[in-house]
Amino acid sequence: MPAPPLPRFSIRAIELFERPVVLRLPFRFGMVTLERAPQAFVRAHIRLADGAEAWGASAEMMVPKWFEKDPARSNAADIEALRMALRAARSAYLGGAV
User: Fold this and answer.
1) Does the residue 73 lie in any domain?
2) Residue 29 lies in a domain
3) Lowest-confidence pick of 30-34, 58-62, 69-73
4) Residue 11 contacts residue 94 (beta carbons within 8 Å)
5) Above pLDDT 70, what percent of the chain?
6) Is 75 a domain residue?
7) pTM
8) Is residue 20 a contact partner of residue 38, using CB atoms and an 8 Å limit?
9) Dihedral sign for Cα atoms in the order 78, 79, 80, 81
10) Distance set, CA 31 to CA 25, 42, 49 (Å)
């Protein structure tokens, strides 16, 4: 049986937000013990080929050492790299230069 056709849509807008989060208990993974970190939120507005529109959202913690495993880099530098990745992805999805 052939697969159903994929939905066709265009991305109309992408909004980025963040909020500080303090964990109730420290969480250790790898070289990091996480006690606090910003949480990133992304909202996307799409338009389907038939003209219908919708908003969607997602959220994720911006955890130091997620991209860069370099112990010499500060947590602030790691979190800023995650912010830059979000901005670059938004620009790419909206058709801008990265």
Assistant:
1) yes
2) no
3) 30-34
4) yes
5) 97
6) yes
7) 0.85
8) yes
9) positive
10) 17, 27, 46
Residue with tokens 């912010």: 83
DSSP 8-state assignment for residue 94: T
Please give the residue range of the domain that contains residue 59.
9-22+35-93
Alpha helices in 1-98 (DSSP H): 75-93
Tokens describing residue 27: 């969480």
* Total domains in the fold of the chain: 1
Model confidence at 63, pLDDT cuts 50, 70, 90, reads very high
SS3 label, residue 26? strand
Residue 41 maps to a domain = yes
Higher pLDDT, 87 or 66: 87
Residue 30: which pLDDT band, with cuts at 50, 70 and 90? confident
DSSP H helix total and E strand total for the chain: 1, 3
